[in-house]
Amino acid sequence: MRRHRPVVEVPDVVGLGADDACAIVRRAGLVPAGPEGMPAPEDGVVVAQAPIGTAGAEQGATVVLITQHGRRPSDDPITPPPTEEADTLQPA
């Protein structure tokens, strides 16, 4: 008879850098991996994962992380929205 391992919640790591995502997955008791049996990604930004975040998985299960190279959205500068003042001020 096979013993079941405890079920843990899969963390949602989409949007994080590969290093941070792998560390979080490991802390949850899961094993990060790349797609199609590749090793865990070492760089890039996680754009998808399986199983999805908040799903349940047996402790020690694999979480596939798909990464894309480039900057994280949080690295982009924040552009303030235009002010209403600029819209309402008109020459007389």
TrEMBL record:
PROSITE patterns: PASTA
Domain PASTA: 4-69
Region annotated Disordered, chain positions: 68-92
Signal peptide: none
Protein's recorded name: PASTA domain-containing protein
Source organism (scientific name): Amycolatopsis thermalba
